[in-house]
Amino acid sequence: MKELLECKHFINGQWINAQTTEQQAITNPSTGETISWSPLNGNKDVDDAVSSAAKAFEEWRDTPVTKRAQIMYRYKQLLEKNIDELSRLVTLEHGKNVIEARGSVGRGIEVVDLACSLPAVFKGETLHNVGGGVDYETRRFPLGVCAGITPFNFPAMIPLWMFPIAITCGNTFVLKPSPQTPLTSIRLVELLDEAGLPKGVINVVHGGKEAVDALLEHPQVQAVSFVGSTPIAKYIYQTGTNAGKRVQSAGGAKNYALLTQDAPVKETVDALIASAFGSAGERCMAMSIVIGTDDVIDKFLPHIRNAAAELTVGPTFGDETPDMGPVISQEHLERIQNYITSGIEQGAKLILDGRKHDIINPSNGFFIGPSIFDHVKPNMRIAQEEIFGPVLCVMRVADFDAAMEQINTSPYGNAAVIFTNNGACAREFRNRAQCGMIGVNVGVPAPMGLFPFSGWNDSFFGDLHVQGREGIDFYTKKKVVLNRWF
Ligand code: NAD
What is the model's pTM? Predict the structure, then answer.
């Protein structure tokens, strides 16, 4: 752990110090203590990492896919063996409780499962005797050096969305984790190294915008996978594609949950509470707006409010598993508090104030309890902007059509869910919601690794999403071969 907390780059199979003294504190959000320093490096380290990946690509591309997948089998075993340690690291640097952290590592391992099965899906297509003795076939080829840029909120799961598939497809990889939560990435890569990956196939460089820009500008980087906030996602997509790279770029979200009168109360409330306040609301799949007609809201809201008021909030270190841990930083805490002030000023009714919530043993951590606003109007900032914290907005509308219209005014398009017992309503919702991930009686409709994580609109820029077959398509290019023998 001591060694780990040093936060080094991983280049050409070696853990090395950054060539810079500029650094950013990595904080345990439960205590406010600095646990390490994340280097903010310049072009030099990025260039070394990309060169190492480019060199490794020459052999790795020709390593049989079955052999590449064997490394992933060993990696999966190592991840499972070390899941407790990985989960505690996620908790240490992000603050979500260890149960949520473990769940998130498990979701990442699902993508490694997909990578293990890659030889089966990697096969091309053939069409025998198309005419004149000609046979057609398609073959997949890796792209070369791929880069991954990840956000703070899922330090294990999101890097695992990217590099296991990229590498098993025959690419080499440079990971640039969030400077706020880079320690889990380091451990993930240590374990991949232990699984027997040749040196240079995976590399890690730390840093902020300057490291990202160096990757986007580097002529040897062929593809960029990004997950983070919408303004940066848009920037990455535009800059990367302008430089001729393949880019998949996932952004922020503002997700709606539509309730109907006949939805089962307990199951709906439990799912909504977990969705809105799990991981302290720092999830791109969190349902942050509940929408429904007056009668439905009046029926459900007292239950939602009571359940939220009972959530325990406090530090998540050791074996402590409060329902909600801290948010990521003091700055983010203040941002959330400002949104609460703005909601009040713009006339929404604060029916649960997270600023007054009891915090168990708060020390100097970044804590805020769950907040709920009723009577939120579409023009309010709390309705329009991603808060990324434990603040649930409630909107009242005239009918189902008005709810659909409101949901579809959102510039985002990550997810939307409906809670109902009415199949026709569910079907209509599924068809009309302009979002890429839909839940029917599911609070967090995050797809497992076999399916694409398919945000729309301002929640995603690009064509091929992470995970599933789209993930494989993103990291490969196809060649069509026409064979004729005389
Ligand atoms: P962020 O956009 O601030 O940072 C993401 C990454 O981009 C980090 O590695 C960071 O170092 C880098 N970065 C930051 N500013 C940059 C700049 N100006 N130029 C180039 N690179 C820059 O996001 P965050 O705060 O770490 O994460 C939270 C956001 O991520 C939320 O908006 C959340 O919705 C989103 N998110 C989306 C998904 C999804 O699948 N759509 C999943 C998780 C998180």
Answer: 0.97
